[in-house]
Amino acid sequence: MRSTIAAIFIFLVQGMYAQPVLSWMELSATRVHTTPDMRYQPDFFQGLNERNNTEVTVTGYIIPMDVEQNTYVLSMTPFSNCFFCGQAGVETVIDLHFADSNVKFKVDDYVVLSGFFRLNKNPGQGFIYSMRNVKVKK
Predict the structure, then answer these.
(1) Which residues share a beta bridge with 25?
(2) Which residues, at least 6 apart from 70, have a Cβ–Cβ distance to it below 8 Å?
(3) Helix (H/G/I), strand (E/B), else coil: 129
(4) Which of 84, 90, 94, 124 is the most exposed place for a label (fewest CB within 10 A)?
(5) 86 vs 13: CA distance, rounded Å
(6) How many Å apart are CA 75 and CA 88, to the nearest integer?
(7) CATH (residue range 22-136)
(8) Considering the entire predicted model, what is its pTM?
């Protein structure tokens, strides 16, 4: 029943945007293993391979990494609950690369973004998801 409700919700939300909506439910289904040398190795959820290098819309909380360098990540949860604080895993954040280098955000700004989604199949200790040419949806 829960998956049926989630599927209906995703279908309805997708109708609101030109790009398909990427859900945190899909992203969180990825399992991440740590190798003996402490590197992340993702086992991506099957449906994510089909979304690799496609334009998507996603919502979440902004976490600034380096404001001067305009480096941000998008998190499924606010900063106090993100994987940096031990409450979630690397499958709950997306590395962001904005089309406009002048965008500025504050911690935990809740945003709707669109961009090209990419899987990082060999992340080492980096992020397993990224988005390129990211734009803020109004």
Answers:
(1) none
(2) 98, 101, 102, 103, 104
(3) strand
(4) 124
(5) 30
(6) 10
(7) 2.40.50.870
(8) 0.81
* Cβ-based neighbour number of residue 48 at 10 Å: 19
Helix (H, G, I), strand (E, B) or coil at 116: strand
Residue with token string 């280098």: 101
User: What are the DSSP E strand ranges found in the chain?
Assistant: 31-34, 40-43, 54-66, 71-75, 93-98, 110-119, 129-136
Domain ranges for the chain: 22-136
Look up residue 104 and give its two tokens. Answer: 């500025």
The tens place of each residue's pLDDT in the chain, 138 residues long, gives 555 554 455 555 545 546 799 999 999 999 988 888 888 889 998 889 999 999 999 999 999 988 888 889 999 988 876 666 666 788 899 999 999 888 889 989 999 999 999 999 887 767 999 999 999 997
Instruction: Provide the token pair at 89.
Output: 């895993």
